[in-house]
Design goal:
single chain; 283 residues; alpha/beta; six-stranded mixed β-sheet; four-stranded antiparallel β-sheet; 10 strands
């Protein structure tokens, strides 16, 4: 083997190591539509229209779109917190009718999601108590996940004593403690300062790689989408929003924002957003 052939083989091997193997779809979204209020013939009240997608187990999927395009509506339907007007979502072939323990939900507003009268430890423990997990096992699990999100030294603090970033890490720990297969995240870092946001983005990638959870993450931030997602699904403008384009992202982690491939994908997404904006305004 020549030196060049050997070098090419090494490059191919290094690239192959960054490719994650996925099994058949864990979640199937079939012809989902959502209409609010009384149905109008012109469809003005239809927020989502005929949304179709497949999500593999262990995948990190980003749902991205302009504000008001129906991203959170779709996420709430996936979480079982909202019923579609038409279509069906299934997990391993089983229809989603309501919220379930296989799905953990993390919201943007941690203050509204956490129990202010409970300590960090008690917030993480809550779901385990509901599931009637034994005390010793609860203690082990709570401590494991508080340590995972670097909050072990803050276990006795109440949410009001934690920073915004710490509250979001606490939400993640509480969701993970119940061992869901799927994490559903609705713009969880949107209200944070840039430095805290970047730190939590890196932590989330670490948690995903360590746990193998399936993550569905909503954002309207293009840079965040390219930093995090294995797959990025772009939603069109509302009304009648649907998945208009999906990108498979082959960039290795951790991602370099100065990498030409990173910048190229970000530019592609920006151009698509600009096109959708113009199309929506002219419709």
């Amino acid at each position: 083997m020549t030196e060049q052939a050997a070098a090419d083989t090494i490059v191919k091997f290094e690239k192959a190591r960054t490719v994650k193997v996925h099994f058949p779809s864990l979640i199937s979204v079939r012809h989902i539509s959502k209409t609010y209020g009384a149905f109008k013939k012109d469809g003005e009240d239809e927020v989502l229209h005929d949304v179709d997608m497949e999500i593999a187990e262990g995948e990190f999927l980003i749902l991205i779109g302009k504000s008001g395009c129906g991203k959170s509506t779709l996420l709430n339907i996936l979480a079982g917190l909202l019923k579609p007007s038409a279509g069906e979502i299934s997990i391993e072939g089983h229809p989603v009718r309501k919220a379930g323990k296989e799905r953990g939900v993390i919201f943007q507003n941690a203050d509204a999601a956490l129990f202010p009268w409970k300590t960090a430890y008690e917030n993480v423990e809550y779901g385990l108590r509901v599931q009637k997990v034994k005390k010793d096992e609860r203690k082990r699990i709570v401590e494991e996940y508080l340590e995972l999100v670097d909050l072990k030294d803050h276990a006795d603090k109440y949410p009001s004593e934690l920073s915004g970033g710490m509250k979001q890490r606490l939400q993640i720990a509480r969701a993970l403690a119940c061992n869901p297969r799927i994490l559903i995240m609705d713009e969880p870092f949107g209200a944070l300062d840039a430095q805290t946001r970047r730190m939590l983005q890196n932590e989330l990638i670490h948690i995903w790689q360590k746990t193998g959870k399936t993550i569905i993450f909503v954002t309207h931030d293009i840079n965040e989408a390219v930093l995090l997602g294995e797959k990025i699904s772009v939603m069109s403008m509302s009304p009648h929003a649907s998945i208009c384009k999906t990108y498979d992202v082959e960039l290795p982690y951790p991602r370099n924002e100065r990498d030409p491939a990173f910048l190229d994908l970000r530019e592609q997404l920006q151009q698509y957003f600009d096109f959708e904006q113009v199309r929506g305004e002219s419709a």
